[in-house]
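Hey all, quick one. A colleague (J.T.) asked me to put the 2-phosphoglycolic acid job into the tracker so the inputs and the C-alpha cells live in one place instead of scattered across chat threads. No bug as far as I know, just bookkeeping. Sequence used:
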Amino acid sequence: MIPDGGPGRRLVVGNWKSNGDPGLVDGWARGFAGAWGPGAAVTVCVCPPHPLVARLRERLPGGILVGAQDVSAHPAGARTGEVSAEALAACGCRAAIVGHSERRALLGETDETVRRKVGRAIGAGLAAVLCVGETLEERERGDAALVVGRQLEAALPPRAFESAGDALPVAIAYEPVWAIGAGRTPTAAQIGEIHRHLSDRASVIAGNRVRIPVLYGGSVGASNIGDILSGDRVDGVLVGGASLDGSGFGDICRLAAAH
Ligand code: PGA
C-alpha cells in the first residue's frame, strides 16, 4: 500500500497508460532524478505498463513508489492474460489504478468489475487508485456529483477498511472524462465541489477508520498544477500524458510539494 504521509502531504500518481519501452524507462529515470528534488514532501507513485515495472523500480530514486495500471478481478489461475494482485505486489507494486474511464468506456468495464478489482487490490496489500468521473453530457445535465457518487459507492467494499493500519488502502481519483487528454480542466471551484462530495461520501463508507485522499486527474501539467491544488480538498493529482517525460514529471512532483 501507499504509506499515509498525513493530510498535508500530497500524493502524485503517474499513469503511463499503454506507452513506453525499456529505452523510455532509462531516459525517463535520468530526467526524473535530475528534476524532482529529493527530500520534497510529496508521495510519488509511477504506474508504467506491467512489463516495465521491474526495470523502472530498479532505476527510481529511493522512496519513489511503483504501481500498476489495472489488476485482475480474480485470483491467480486459469485466466490467460490476466495479472493477479498478488503477482503485482510480489513484483514490488504498491498500488493499482482501477476503474479508469478508458477501461470503462473502451473495454466495457462495469461497476461490479471495478468493485471486485478494488477488493482484490486491497486484499493483496496494494492501494487501489479508484478513478471516477462524469462525461461532458452528464456535467451539462447537472449530474456530475450524482454520477461520481454512484461510481464511488458501487466500487468501495466497506469491509476493505478494517485492517489498513497507517497505510492508504484507497485513493480516489476524480477524473472528468471530458478533461482527460483534452487540454482543458474544470475550474478550481468545480474541482473543489466534487472533491468535497467524494471525500465526505468516502469517509462515511470507510467509517472514518482511514483517510481516503482525493486526487484530481485530467490534463494536469506543470503550468496548471498550482491552480488545481488550490481547489478545496485536493490531496494530489493523477497525471497521464505529462507523466511520460521524466524531467517534466519531476517538475510536477516538486511543484506539488511546494503548494
Ligand atoms: P491526462 O490523463 O493527464 O493525459 O489527461 C489523465 C488520466 O487519464 O489518468
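Adding what we noticed when we looked at it: The pocket of 2-phosphoglycolic acid is lined by residues 15, 175, 180-181, 217-220, 238-242 (CB under 6 Å). The chain has a mean pLDDT of 94.
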